[in-house]
């Protein structure tokens, strides 16, 4: 039986050098004029970055830029901003300690800072006068366009490098997608498994006899809640459960952010629960493999009051900032399976997220291009409710999930999709407003992953490119998968009346409003027949109640309805 992992690329392990070691590492030139100016963005902290290939100290120069505009073009959670900047500063230190210095590092608080990424890049090009700008392909179309415009204005050629952190390239995905009427993640995932030899028997069949064990992974907790209790997050110092203590670099970042920005979200004093270095990210991976992987699969869709993390890996921010290599995640899970430390249903589910869904979403982002963000297939025009910035809402499930985002910058995928995303979709919020909120308020938010997940899958704004049906549910599903309905003032079984669950009311209102469109969808049209069993009086009451709910939460009305504003 073959349980092979991904063949590790050369020097992939944490802390190793890129494939070409810099020459003349001891020199620290300050003079202008260089061959290449290498721009490293905040989500490109890969120590094996293609941009570092062939680096020669004294000939090439690295620039890293902090910019207030990147935390304000969509309001960025305090923890997300601190995480990005602390990780950047730690990476800059590593670069200089390993012969890639001096790094031209532009901090938020520097005198004369323009506040904009493009402004500081233009200034760097004027000062350094390179022959070319080298940068890894950005994870956001907006940023790539910005960089290209700066280079064009400065008459400096832009050299775009492949982001080899990922297991597949946009060209790989485009080749797979060519000629297909629909793009189904499951088929991409199987293609990836076969191509990479992941959990494949010698005869080419999947280990366990099936490609996908998702049907086994929809369990909810009993009345006693999760058992065993999730193990606290790791800490780099003395096993403290609250995360990693701020070192001097992170302390400086927090001070600078607080002095320059007013941002949504909370930040616990003295500790950050998200890794800011490659070493911390490796520790977080080991913690997940040792303590939570075995329970992850069965309960990956479950929710529980007061337990926002449960058995989820919490590795998405480390992956998206390139502090952690996806190959290391896959290989660690396979080793755990081979040693009998985790069941196949959990290992397969985790690997599917890494090599399947994550790479599929990125493929969609680049295949569809910059116009994707303009899609609004359901023609939703409502405003994002103000409660999404505070968690101040009567519905217990929504309050719990948004509260986790405000406090931690995180909620796991079912809370994102079937509670917060579901409410916005049922209420008719504009999909780009939802996507922007997900981008800014989650510590793992980067456009390539957020836009297809939020606008596409969650809000069905792309009309079915990512997901074959709208991901909607009434209160009954939330009750089944959580204990959120216990103690809530609303009854998930009621469609109308004062105690009717807003999710249930708006679920049926959504189906009625979009029935002509949904009738064409084979995965949805069967449930539409239930509407015909309602009396006309009840259908009218559902519509009236749903509109009242939208107004109550600030969804309906002018586009200037209040959202988050700097305090």
Structural write-up:
The chain has helices spanning about 80-95, 115-130, 140-155, 170-175, 185-195, 250-260, 280-290, 295, 315-320, 325-340, 345-370, 395-410, 415-425, 430-440, 445-460, 475-480, 500-515, 515-520, 525-530, 535-550, and strands spanning about 35-40, 60-65, 105, 130-135, 155-160, 245, 270. The protein has about 575 residues and is mostly helical. α1 (about 80-95) links the parallel β2 (about 60-65) and β3. The chain is globular, with a radius of gyration of 24 Å. Residues about 5-15, about 20-30 and about 560 have low confidence and may be disordered. The longest helix has 25 residues, at about 345-370. The protein folds into three domains: about 35-160, 3-Layer(aba) Sandwich (Rossmann fold), CATH 3.40.50; about 170-260 and about 275-375, Alpha Horseshoe (Serine Threonine Protein Phosphatase 5, Tetratricopeptide repeat), CATH 1.25.40.80; about 385-550, Orthogonal Bundle (DNA Cyclobutane Dipyrimidine Photolyase, subunit A, domain 3), CATH 1.10.579. It is built from 20 helices and seven strands. The N and C termini lie far apart (about 60 Å). Strands 3-2-1-4-5 form a five-stranded parallel β-sheet, with helices on both faces.
Furnish the topology, listing elements before pairings:
Blueprint: E1 34-39, E2 60-65, H1 78-97, E3 103-106, H2 117-128, E4 130-136, H3 141-154, E5 157-161, H4 170-177, H5 185-196, E6 244-245, H6 248-260, E7 271-272, H7 278-291, H8 293-296, H9 316-320, H10 326-338, H11 344-368, H12 396-408, H13 413-427, H14 431-441, H15 447-458, H16 475-481, H17 502-513, H18 515-518, H19 525-528, H20 536-552
Helix pairs in contact: 1-6, 2-3, 4-11, 5-11, 7-10, 10-11, 11-15, 12-13, 13-17, 14-15, 17-20
């Amino acid at each position: 039986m073959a349980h092979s992992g991904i063949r590790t690329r050369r020097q992939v392990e944490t802390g190793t050098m890129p494939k070409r070691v810099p020459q003349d590492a001891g020199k620290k030139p300050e003079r202008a004029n260089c061959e290449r100016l290498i721009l490293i963005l905040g989500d490109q902290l890969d120590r094996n970055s293609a941009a570092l290939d062939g680096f020669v100290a004294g000939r090439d120069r690295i620039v890293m830029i902090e910019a207030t505009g990147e935390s304000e073009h969509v309001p960025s959670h305090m923890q997300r901003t601190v995480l990005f900047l602390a990780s950047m500063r730690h990476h800059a230190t590593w670069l200089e300690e390993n012969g890639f210095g001096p790094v031209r590092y532009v901090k938020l608080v520097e005198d004369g800072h323009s506040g904009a990424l493009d402004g500081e890049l233009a200034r760097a090009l004027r000062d350094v006068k390179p022959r070319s700008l080298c940068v890894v392909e950005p994870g956001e179309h907006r940023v790539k366009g910005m960089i290209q415009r700066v280079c064009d204005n400065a008459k400096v050629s832009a050299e775009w490098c492949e982001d080899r952190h990922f297991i597949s390239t946009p060209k790989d995905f485009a080749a797979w997608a060519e000629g297909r009427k629909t793009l189904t993640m499951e088929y991409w995932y199987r293609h990836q498994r076969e191509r990479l030899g992941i959990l494949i028997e010698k005869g080419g069949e999947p280990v366990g006899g099936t490609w996908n064990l998702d049907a086994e992974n929809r369990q909810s907790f009993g009345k006693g809640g999760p058992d065993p209790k999730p193990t606290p997050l790791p800490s780099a110092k003395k096993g403290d459960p609250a995360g990693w203590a701020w070192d001097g670099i992170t302390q400086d970042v927090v001070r600078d952010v607080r002095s320059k920005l007013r941002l949504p979200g909370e930040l616990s004093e003295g500790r950050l629960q998200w890794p800011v270095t490659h070493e911390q990210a490796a520790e977080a991976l080991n913690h997940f493999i040792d303590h939570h992987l075995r329970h992850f699969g069965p309960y990956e869709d479950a929710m529980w009051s007061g337990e926002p993390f449960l058995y989820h890996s919490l590795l998405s921010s480390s992956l998206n900032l390139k502090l952690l290599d996806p190959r290391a995640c896959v290989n660690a899970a396979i080793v755990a399976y081979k040693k009998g430390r985790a069941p196949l249903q959990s290992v397969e589910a985790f690997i599917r997220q890494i090599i399947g869904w994550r790479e599929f979403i990125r493929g969609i982002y680049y295949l569809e291009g910059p116009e994707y963000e303009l899609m609004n297939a359901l023609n939703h025009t409502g405003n994002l409710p103000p409660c999404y910035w505070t968690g101040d809402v009567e519905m217990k499930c929504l309050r719990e999930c948004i509260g986790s985002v405000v406090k931690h910058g995180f909620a796991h995928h079912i809370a994102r999709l079937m509670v917060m995303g579901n409410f916005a979709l049922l209420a008719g919020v504009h999909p780009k407003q939802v996507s922007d909120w997900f981008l800014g308020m989650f510590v793992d938010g980067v456009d390539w992953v957020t836009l297809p997940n939020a606008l596409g899958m969650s809000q069905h704004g792309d009309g079915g490119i990512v997901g074959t049906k709208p991901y909607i549910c009434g209160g009954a599903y939330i009750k089944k998968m959580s204990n959120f309905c216990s103690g809530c003032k609303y009854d998930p079984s009621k469609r109308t009346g004062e105690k009717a669950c807003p999710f249930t009311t708006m679920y049926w209102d959504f189906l009625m409003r979009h029935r002509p469109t949904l009738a064409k969808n084979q995965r949805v049209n069967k449930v539409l027949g239930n509407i015909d069993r309602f009396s006309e009086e009840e259908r009218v009451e559902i519509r009236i109640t749903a509109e009242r709910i939208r107004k109550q939460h600030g969804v309906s009305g002018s586009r200037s309805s209040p959202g988050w504003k700097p305090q």
